[in-house]
Every structure is written in structure tokens, then in C-alpha cells.
Specification:
By secondary structure, the chain is mostly beta strands. It has ten helices and 50 strands. The strands form twelve sheets. A six-stranded antiparallel sheet has the order 5-4-6-11-8-9, with no helix packed on it. Strand 8 and strand 9 form a beta hairpin. Helix 1 packs across helix 2 and helix 3 packs parallel to helix 4. The longest helix is centred in the middle third of the chain and has 17 residues. It is globular, with a radius of gyration of 27 Å.
């Protein structure tokens, strides 16, 4: 096996630079290639039967040109129909939202007669799920996997100079995933026009075989398609520029090469160039370049294809861990699902940037796209913001999982190779992506000895595909089956051994296989609810209280562990490349309490009171939560206490201290109320109303400081942290009075008037002195006027079944959120007003330009 996997790669983003990082806002127009957003002006209708909804049966022939869609709803893409609700009961694992059923989308558009002779395509970044597409009544094709991007050609069925009708049908089957799947065309759609001879779909691949501080050799492999109907000779060349705005001087130029193309075929050509004194792509300095590749036929430039890439080296080692640009770098990663709070799975650049910004602030440097290909916008932002990425293809192979009867296993044999190759071709050139995963927790890899070969063989087959498409990156697999995975010789199917949970196996596996790098692919599983604290404070498997989990970060899933234990094993095993916490952000569906409450004999608790509470809850047959407790931030992006536990470990040089719990405990005066402190310092002293509760030092493997016997008294709880004997940071909590006012804090005030940009407005309930009321639950009503509108509301409470797309929201532990969206083409002020009975009104001013 590999003692070292040494990789040197420059990566590309496979679209024009003018649309990079801009999502639906971009529009590139040149004389030879056009790629424009195709998101606006769609007609939408739901059909089929779903819980708690009365929806008509599906009429026939909705793809037909003459279908009357005048009474259908007009919407813009991306779109998640399920997040609209209403909530229903009995489907907590799937978010209690109406994901199941059929949806139709239709769009009328024209192409000019001047486009005749060009090739026209429609590109879907994703559609959930079983998408089928028609143009003018003619079936073009589709894709069952909702997370896959795909292209269909329109040319042969277009009416030039006349109206055309594109129709798309999506269908979510019953329980197609193990979590909230959302529904509909949830990612961007693009209309692409090219000359008959052009760079193919995902048709460039850039690598840097040699990288030093003085130079980077660049290899540009280009696939050229010929759809002209006659043999052609084309000349291909590339110029390289710094991607930063204003850099118009090429830093490297390739020599042109000619390629002969059959009358209806493709050809490949490899170009080379050298960048002097290259600026590396790194976590701290995510420098990017763009390569402009031109295709010339008969002296005329017929295509110009711009790709963005980064120069960097990666190295996975068995003894030293992961190296980025030659520097040992521990992956401090977060698993991210496909939904982003109140938007559901609707892909939106502002939302993804907002949530990824929270991860960056916490000190995370890595993202895992659990358990599917990442969205194009998220991967673009990881390139831009400086995250390394583990990208994964599936949650199932041939064997299904009990909670997804219509999961990927239903289509694996037909689509696995196509979907895997397409994921790699689309994304293999992102500088952020440093490792692939061939799947998550595969049933086949945990079978007993004698039954394991199907999984081993599938793993080897997928390994071969990954290496054919991208030999520059290693492959892992996110595996939770031990010792089954060891019996089936899982390491033969990958380059880096992946561990889901089980940190106790790190050192054992390294001793058994000292030549194989190790990575924690899904880890910890410590759950919490923002602002919820329960007593006594015990270290237990999840103990939901009133359908919440304590925010002391002291409770974990039965299959996981406490955060502190994973940190300890990472520190004790520097050879481990890092870990990916489950999860960075709370996500809809798959509530964390589910396995505990359905297995009443799975755990015995340390106190009779907790055991009795648990037994009573375990008797319930239904869990009614629309989301879990997994994230370090909640559905709003608001930080849980655990956020600061991670920050203290991830950013040891950042002065910070965080004290918990809140200090509003009416009725607990004089009772023991333990205080925990998360700090990057090495020592801290806690004060209650100015009286010291003692000064404590952190031990080698202590990741929090705990005062077990402190007693609650109203007033001020304060911590002062020290490092190397000097004051380092401080934090405090103050007992709040009755709710008196509302405070609005937009995450940004200057917006783009494109109909897509958002502002996440934090809503806080304060007392008369401006202190947060940490137990407030006031109903807050919202009004937005001017150049914006209300997109959604949220409060981060998995128990709250108020409408997501409404105009009011109750506060959860003092906080809630309203999301404001701009109106396309309407610039000017946006006024956000928040009111609640008995509270002073709050107003926030935004500006759309």
C-alpha cells in the first residue's frame, strides 16, 4: 500500500470566470459562447397525493406544447417546494415537510434566427429528483439522482425565431433518503450556446505536475467536440491570468496545438505553460488563476472557454497526516447536508456564504459534502473562502438502508458509474477538493466474513473509476462498520482509511497498517439545543428533555462520543489527517433523539430521575421533531455553546473565552448550577457577583474548565481567562429582567437588487437594560417595505411547527430570524419592522442597489 500519496494539482472551476461565485446572478456573453441563467419565469404546479395536502391527480400530457398553464404559479429557480410546508406529522426523519410527490415546471422562451447553426444546451446543476425533460413535446432525457448535474441538448428540437416550451417533471418517491430531501428544481439552470466546434461539457482539466516557489508547470487537457457534420482541424491555445479583478496581463501562455476532428466526434489535446513565482491556493490565502482557452477553426476563433483554478500541493501520509503546500495541516472539518436553514435545499449563494462564514469564524478549515456531491455554488465558495473539501458521491451502493426504501440502491447498477464519473469531471479541478469518498456507511462493507466480497468488489470497481477520471487525488470511504470493514479488507478499496466515529481505532489501525493514511470522515456526534440547560449535569448518551438536548455539550449519540474525547484522540494521534464533525449546521430531518427513543434498552443512565424520564419518552411511538440537534450552529446560523468549544481548539492563538450557562434561573436560587468555560487560554477564574469561585488550570487533555459546585444567585456570572500567566480574554452573563424591546441585527445591510440576494436578520428579545432575555418566547411579527420582501422566518427550534414562509415567528430562547430578499430591478431602501405585544418596536434599514 501507499506510504505516501503525493499530489500536485491546479484546479479549475468549469465555467466562465464571469459567472464564478455569482450563482444565478451571472450572465456571460461573447461572440463565440454564451452561458446565461435560465432561472426566471417558470410556471410551477404540484400534483400527486401527500400527507395533509389536497393536491389534484396528475393530468396527462403536461409536457405538451398546448398545455394551459395560465393558472400555474410563476416562480424563479432555484426552488424547494417542500420547505413551504405545511408541516405534517409522522415523518420526523424527513423533516415533517411535504417532500413526496410530483412537481411540474414549464417555461416559454425564444431563440433568435441568428442562433441557427449554433449548438444549444440546457444545464441543470441539480433537480430533486427523477427529473425528466421535454422540449416542444419531445423527450430529451433526465437524471434520477437529485444531487447530480447534467446537460441535455436542445438544438434539434428548437423552433428558431418562435416560442419554445421546456417542460420538466420531478418526482420524489416515498422516503428517497434518510433525511429531508426537499423537492423540485433546487439548483441553478443554464442555457448554453456554442459554435459547432467547441470545448466539451466539463471539457478542461488543469494540473500542475511540478510546483515550487519559483515556478509552477501547468498542464491543460482540453476535450474539443465537433458537431459540424464534417471533419475539422482546430487549433487550441490557453492564456493564464490572475483571477483577481483588474489583472489583464497574462502570467503564462501555452504554445498552440492543432487537433484533427472527425465529422461527428471529439478529440483531446494537452497544452503546457509555466507560471513564474506562483501564488499558492491555501486555506489562509486562497489565490486563484483563470485560464482562457480558445478554439480556432479556419483562422476564426469559434470558442473561448474560461476556467478558474488554483496552484497547490497536497500530501496524505501515514505517519505525518495531511500536508497542504508542504505544511502539516490538521483537517478541522464539518459535515454539511444540502439544506440551509429556512431556505431548505434552494441553492442560494448568499445563504451558503453566510453559513460557511460561521464555520470559518469558528476555525473550521474543511467541509465534507455529506452524503452526496456538493452544490456548484458551495464548492465555488470553498475555493474562494479557503476550505479543503472531502466530496462524496453516495449514501448507498447496491444494498439499501432501512430508512430509505427508495434510496440510491434502486438505481445503483444503472447509474452509479455515470453519476460518479460526472461528479469527478464536474469537480475534479476545484482546488478546494483534496480527497474523494466513494460512499457513506455502506451496508456491504460491514457484512460478516464470508459475505463481504460484494462490498470489496464494488469498492475496487469504484476505485478504478476514480483513478481513471482523476489520478491526482486519493480516495477514502466513510465507514462505520468495525470490525466488519477490517474483515472485508476495506483498505484494498481506497487510499486513505476513513473512520466514522470510533476514534479508539485510530492507534490500533495504525499499528496494524502503518503504511495507510487515516482520516476521521464523520465524527463525534455530540448534540445540543441552543440555550437549553438541564440539571443535574451528567455525561450521558442523548437525554432529550421536553424534546431538547442540553447545551452543555455533555450528551452524545449512542454511536458517537463527547467532543472532548475526539479532540483528545486527535491530539494523541498527530498522524491522523483530521476529522469531520457531525454536523456543522443543524439540518432538517433525521432528529438526533430518534435512535435513543426507539431503543429503550440501549442505555442505562446514571440517575433514577433521568432513567425514569427516558423510559417515559421511549414509550412514545412518534417523534415529532422537524430537525435534529447535530449542528454547532442552529437552523438560523446562531452559535450554540459548542461553537465556542470548537473555536477554542481550532484557533488556539485567538484570545477567547466563553462561559455557560445563561444566568436566568428563577426558582433555583442557592441550587448547584455548574459553570463550564471554553477558552483558548490555559487558566481561568470564575466570579459570581464579583466573588471568586476559584481559579483552574487546564490539563494536557482538558478542553473545558468545569466548576461543578457553583450555586445560582441572580446577578453577574463572569470568567477571566489567562494564558502564560497573563490576562487573555473574558466573558460574562447577566441576569436579565422582563422582556422590554426587540433588537434587529442584519448580517449585511447592502444588497444587490437581483431578486436573489438575502439579508439574514437576527432578532433578539432584550430587557430594559439591553440584556438578552435567554428564556423569552415572544411572538414577533414582521413587516418589510421598499425594495425587499420576506423570504422566510426561523428560530432554530426543532420543536417549532410554525410556518417557515410566514410573517411572524416566536422567539426560541430569546432569538429568532427573518430573512429578507431583494426584488429584481428594484433599488432603494428596505425597511424591516419587528413588533411584539408589550415590547418596543424595532426597525432595521437595508439598501438594495
Amino acid at each position: 500500500m501507499h506510504t505516501r500519496i503525493l499530489i500536485s494539482l491546479a484546479a479549475i472551476l468549469l465555467f466562465s470566470s464571469s459567472v464564478a461565485f455569482a450563482g444565478a446572478k451571472a450572465h456571460e456573453q461573447t461572440s463565440v459562447r454564451e452561458r446565461a441563467s435560465f432561472n426566471e419565469g417558470w410556471k410551477f404546479m404540484r400534483t400527486g397525493k401527500m400527507p395533509d395536502l389536497s393536491i389534484q391527480a396528475e393530468p396527462a400530457n403536461l409536457e405538451a406544447v398546448g398545455t394551459d398553464d395560465s393558472d400555474w404559479e410563476t416562480i424563479n429557480l432555484p426552488h424547494d417546494y417542500a420547505v413551504r410546508g405545511p408541516f405534517h406529522r409522522g415523518e420526523s426523519r424527513w423533516g415533517n415537510l411535504p417532500y413526496e410527490g410530483v412537481a411540474w415546471y414549464r417555461k416559454s422562451f425564444k431563440v433568435t434566427k441568428a442562433d441557427k447553426g449554433k449548438r444549444l444546451f440546457i444545464d441543470f446543476d441539480g433537480a430533486m429528483s427523477n427529473a425528466k425533460v421535454w422540449l416542444n413535446g419531445q423527450y430529451l432525457g433526465g437524471r434520477p439522482y437529485g444531487y447530480a448535474s447534467f446537460r441535455l441538448e436542445l438544438t434539434d428540437h428548437l423552433k428558431f425565431g418562435q416560442k419554445n416550451i421546456i417542460a420538466v417533471r420531478t418526482e420524489n418517491l416515498y422516503r428517497p433518503t434518510r433525511w429531508y430531501p426537499g423537492g423540485g428544481i433546487n439548483r441553478n439552470v443554464w442555457l448554453v450556446k456554442t459554435a459547432p466546434v467547441h470545448v466539451g461539457h466539463w471539457g478542461t482539466q488543469i494540473t500542475t505536475p511540478e510546483v515550487t516557489d519559483k515556478k509552477a508547470s501547468v498542464s491543460v487537457k482540453v476535450t474539443v467536440d465537433n458537431q459540424s457534420g464534417k471533419a475539422q482541424t482546430a487549433e487550441v491555445a490557453t492564456k493564464i491570468f490572475e483571477a483577481a479583478k483588474g489583472n489583464k496581463k497574462a502570467v503564462a501562455v501555452s504554445a498552440p496545438k492543432k487537433i484533427k476532428l472527425s465529422k461527428s466526434g471529439s478529440g483531446k489535446v494537452e497544452l503546457t505553460a509555466t507560471i513564474k513565482n506562483p501564488k499558492r491556493w491555501d486555506i489562509a490565502t486562497p489565490n486563484l488563476y483563470k485560464a482562457v482557452t480558445t478554439v480556432t477553426v479556419g483562422g476564426e476563433v469559434v470558442d473561448s472557454y474560461t476556467t478558474t483554478f488554483g496552484v497547490r500541493t497536497i500530501d496524505f501520509t501515514a505517519d505525518g497526516g495531511f500536508f497542504l503546500n508542504g505544511k502539516a495541516t490538521k483537517m478541522k472539518g464539518m459535515c454539511i447536508h444540502d439544506d440551509f436553514g429556512a431556505l431548505g435545499i434552494e441553492e442560494n449563494e448568499t445563504a451558503i456564504r453566510y453559513f460557511l462564514g460561521k464555520m470559518k469564524e469558528m476555525g473550521a478549515n474543511a467541509i465534507r459534502t455529506a452524503h452526496k456531491p456538493g452544490s456548484p455554488i458551495m464548492l465555488d465558495l470553498c475555493d474562494e473562502m479557503g476550505f479543503v473539501v472531502l466530496e462524496e458521491n453516495f449514501d448507498e451502493w447496491r444494498a439499501g438502508k432501512k430508512n430509505s426504501p427508495n434510496g440510491y440502491h434502486k438505481i445503483f447498477d444503472e447509474w452509479a458509474e455515470i453519476d460518479t464519473r460526472d461528479m469527478i469531471r464536474r469537480d475534479r479541478n476545484h482546488p478546494s477538493i483534496v480527497i474523494w469518498s466513494s460512499g457513506n456507511e455502506m451496508v456491504e462493507l460491514g457484512k460478516a466474513e464470508g459475505d463481504y466480497m460484494p462490498g470489496n468488489e464494488i469498492g475496487k470497481w469504484l476505485l478504478k473509476i476514480f483513478k481513471e477520471e482523476d489520478p491526482t487525488r486519493p480516495l477514502t470511504n466513510a465507514n462505520n462498520n468495525y470490525p466488519g470493514a477490517l474483515k472485508n479488507k476495506m483498505w484494498e478499496t481506497l487510499d486513505v482509511m476513513g473512520f466514522n466515529y470510533k476514534p479508539e481505532f485510530y492507534s490500533e489501525f495504525h499499528e496494524m497498517h502503518p503504511d495507510i493514511p487515516i482520516l476521521g470522515t464523520e465524527n463525534i456526534g455530540t448534540f445540543s439545543s441552543r440555550g437549553e440547560y438541564f440539571f443535574p449535569v451528567t455525561w450521558e448518551t442523548i437525554v432529550p428533555t421536553n424534546w431538547q438536548v442540553s447545551s452543555y455539550a455533555n450528551q452524545w449519540a449512542p454511536w458517537g462520543c463527547i467532543v472532548d474525547y475526539e479532540f483528545e484522540e486527535q491530539d494523541k494521534n498527530p498522524n491522523v489527517c483530521g476529522f469531520f464533525f457531525w454536523t456543522g449546521i443543524d439540518y432538517r430531518g433525521e432528529p438526533g433523539a430518534d435512535p435513543v427513543l426507539k431503543n429503550p434498552k440501549s442505555h442505562k443512565f446514571t440517575t433514577p430521575e433521568l432513567q425514569a424520564e427516558y423510559d417515559a419518552m421511549a414509550d412514545k411511538t412518534k417523534i415529532e421533531l422537524h430537525a435534529g440537534f447535530n449542528g454547532v450552529v442552529d437552523l438560523c446560523g446562531f452559535e450554540k455553546d459548542m461553537f465556542y468549544l470548537f473555536q477554542a481548539w481550532c484557533l488556539p492563538d485567538k484570545p477567547m473565552a466563553h462561559v455557560l450557562p445563561h444566568w436566568n434561573w428563577s426558582g433555583r436560587e442557592g441550587e448547584v448550577t455548574p459553570v463550564h468555560v471554553f477558552t483558548s487560554g490555559d487558566e481561568a477564574e470564575v466570579f459570581i457577583n464579583g466573588k471568586s469561585q476559584g481559579r483552574k488550570k487546564r490539563g494536557k487533555y482538558d478542553y473545558r474548565l468545569v466548576w461543578e459546585d457553583t450555586k445560582y444567585q441572580p446577578g453577574e456570572l463572569k470568567v477571566v481567562a489567562y494564558k502564560n500567566g497573563k490576562k487573555w480574554a473574558e466573558d460574562s452573563r447577566r441576569t436579565a429582567g422582563k422582556p422590554a424591546s426587540i433588537e434587529l441585527t442584519p448580517h449585511k445591510t447592502e444588497l444587490t437588487a437581483d431578486g436573489y440576494d438575502l439579508s439574514f436578520v437576527k432578532v433578539a428579545i432584550l430587557d430594559k437594560d439591553g440584556n438578552l432575555c435567554p428564556r423569552a418566547s415572544n411572538m414577533v411579527k414582521f413587516k418589510v417595505s421598499g425594495a425587499g420582501k420576506i423570504q422566510a422566518v426561523e428560530n432554530g427550534d426543532s420543536n417549532c411547527f410554525e410556518p417557515i414562509q410566514g410573517k411572524q415567528r416566536s422567539a426560541f430562547n430569546g432569538l429568532c430570524q427573518v430573512i429578507v430578499r431583494t426584488k429584481k430591478g428594484e433599488s432603494g431602501p428596505i425597511t424591516v419592522t419587528a413588533t411584539a405585544d408589550g415590547l418596543t418596536t424595532a426597525v432595521a434599514k437595508l439598501q438594495a442597489e
